[in-house]
Amino acid sequence: MKDDLRNAKYVIDLGPQPSLPIVGSELRFPVGRIYCVGRNYADHAREMGHDPDREPPFFFMKPANAVVQNGATIAYPVGTADCHHEIELVVAIGKGGRNIPVDKALEHVWGYGVGLDMTRRDLQGEAKKMGRPWEMGKSFDESAPMTALKAAAEIGHPAKGAIWLRINGEVRQSGDLAMQIWNVQEQIAYLSNLVTLCPGDLIMTGTPAGVGPVKKGDRLEGHVDGVGDLSITYAA
Ligand code: MN
After folding, report:
1. Distance from the CA of 2 to the center of ligand 1, in angstroms?
2. CA-to-CA distance for 131 and 208, rounded, in angstroms?
3. For residue 191, how far is its CA from the centre of ligand 1 (angstroms)?
4. Ligand 1 centroid to 11 CA: how many Å?
5. Angstrom distance (rounded) from CA 189 to CA 93
6. pTM check: above 0.70
7. What percent of the chain lies above the pLDDT cut of 70?
8. Which of 87, 101, 110, 112 has CA 20 to 30 A from 215's CA?
9. In the chain, domain spans
10. Of 55, 195, 173, nearest in space to 114 by CA
């Protein structure tokens, strides 16, 4: 059945497979699902009013077609008056699996990128208050700008290094990957006990403190040492 489905013909056209470029290659990385880790830096957990003492990691998702290519100018999102930036390290899964042990987890990583977990904070806050799902705060059009990916085979697995975000040249978020409460291998191990990870899945690994609103006309520049530089502009 799987082989039949590979050559299936469809009644409507979905358009191109969401994907990201790869640094130094003509090939692209196909994006499957996007998992995001919540409150993974203690200083950000505290600014959101939570105690960061290693409660188990928790996850939410964005659709693959929320990906925005590096350098794009995008419209301020609909449905919000308080859209926030969250700069994050992105992990690209190359090999799927489930119940992956921590000491084997990095074998499943194809590479890394830099991403923004854009958040309609007002809608998320309302959802929290009402005990409702976060989706409409997190999973919306153009909510996941990302850089091209770099292969782990070339850069290794960054466990420390600066992560920052500037708006119009001014530093708003600044941290270090070493400040993650759950490191990449722990995130993969934990998530793979809840779902079967698939090639093409991305994990957005959480954001350091300093999240805040963006405005029309803002230029966002994000950086992770050794991984990449992201630049996104909100149309005036
Ligand atoms: Mn986030």
Report:
1. 34
2. 25
3. 16
4. 36
5. 12
6. yes
7. 99
8. 112
9. 27-234
10. 173
Q: What are the pLDDT digits (tens) for 49-79?
A: 887 777 889 999 999 999 999 999 999 999 9
Q: Strand (E) positions, the chain?
A: 19-21, 28-30, 34-37, 59-62, 67-69, 73-74, 83-85, 87-93, 109-116, 119-120, 144-146, 150-151, 162-167, 170-176, 202-204, 212-213, 219-224, 228-234
Structure tokens at 81: 């008056």
* Distance between Cα 129 and ligand 1 center (Å): 19
Percent of the chain having pLDDT more than 90?
90
* pLDDT in the model for residue 55: 80
| pLDDT over 70 (residue 10) | yes
Structure tokens at 84: 């926030």
pLDDT value of residue 150: 98
Ligand 1 center to 168 CA (angstroms): 21
Q: Which long-range contacts (CB under 8 A, 24 or more apart) does 134-137 make?
A: 134/60, 135/60, 136/79
Tell me the CATH number of domain 27-234, given options 3.40.50.1100, 2.60.40.10, 3.90.850.10, 2.40.160.180: 3.90.850.10
pLDDT of residue 1: 57
Task: Determine the Cα angle at 131 with ends 179 and 45, to 5°.
Answer: 15
Degrees to nearest 5, angle at CA 63 with 100 and 175: 70
- Tens of pLDDT along 117-150? 999 999 999 999 999 999 999 999 999 999 999 9
Do residues 220 and 232 touch, judged by C-beta distance below 8 A?
Answer: yes
